[in-house]
Amino acid sequence: MKAIKWLLPALMVAAPLAVQASCETVKADINQKIINNGVPASGFTLDVVPSDQADQAGGQVVGHCENDSQKIVYKRERNGDSDAAVPASAGTSQDAPSS
Question: For the whole model, what pTM was predicted?
Fold first, then answer.
């Protein structure tokens, strides 16, 4: 019975870590898709930002996590390269810009 009493507090401590891991997993998957499309790893950054701050992040939203409370924002590094397009297969159709 004492073990059950400690189970709930342990789960409450571990839950935020599991949620963070899921955002990092989504970010890693998107990172790999972009690299697989020929963009060098040094040519872009991916940032996880709160959904309400995604517009101010200065990039393009290419994914989301934590029940859409976090957005993953793609920023192309501009090393003399004017092509800042995100590969079509990065992110999801839900995240695609509307025409």
Answer: 0.61
